[in-house]
Design goal:
mainly alpha, 2 domains
């Protein structure tokens, strides 16, 4: 029974992650505005996902433990491009690409760099959610922020937490989900 539930957790996480940013993308495209969506939050989220993905690849973890990250990263990049386009800041796209691409490369220059980055990854991801919360608090308007995207984020955190626990991976893999799940739930609650 447990292997079947674990497989279901992985498959459902991958399925949700395949479409997790689509409601957010649709909201931004429909309004042709990124009002309420924090660029800083998105950049921090991208950085956190890149670190987590790079760490798992570097240490040779099984593909099923990180398969969703390339999918989410691609969606985040597309969302970032739309946000930059609709906010009139498209010139920053190259700068962000260089920073994120350079960071990807620099993470594995030395083992201690990737280990330190992974230890900071939870804080980076939490800062991402806090930046979005701050944006919502300041504007007092959820604008084009998608509640569905944040509810899916809470679900994926919960399913990854459970799957990680079942696979007996180390605490560094559990702590992001322990912190990020309540933040995602909080963002969802504020938006709706």
């Amino acid at each position: 029974m447990a292997p079947t539930l674990l497989a279901l957790a992985h498959w459902s996480t991958w399925a949700v992650c395949a479409v997790i940013k689509l409601p957010q993308l649709a909201a931004v495209l429909a309004a042709r505005s990124a009002r309420g969506v924090s660029v800083g939050s998105l950049l921090l989220e991208l950085a956190g996902f890149l670190v987590f993905l790079r760490y798992q690849i570097y240490y040779g973890y099984p593909l099923q433990t990180y398969l969703e990250y390339p999918i989410i990263i691609a969606q985040d990049v597309i969302l970032l491009l739309f946000i930059l386009r609709f906010s009139g800041n498209m010139k920053r796209a190259l700068f962000y690409a260089v920073i994120l691409g350079g960071g990807w490369y620099m993470l594995t220059l030395r083992k201690w760099i990737i280990d330190l980055a992974m230890n900071l990854c939870t804080l980076i991801s939490a800062a991402s959610k806090l930046a979005q919360l701050q944006c919502l608090w300041q504007t007092k308007d959820s604008g084009q922020v998608s509640a569905l995207t944040w509810s899916m984020s809470a679900y994926t955190c919960a399913s990854k937490l459970w799957a990680t626990w079942c696979e007996a991976l180390s605490f560094p893999f559990l702590k992001p989900y322990l912190l990020l799940m309540p933040l995602s739930i909080g963002l969802y609650s504020i938006i709706v």
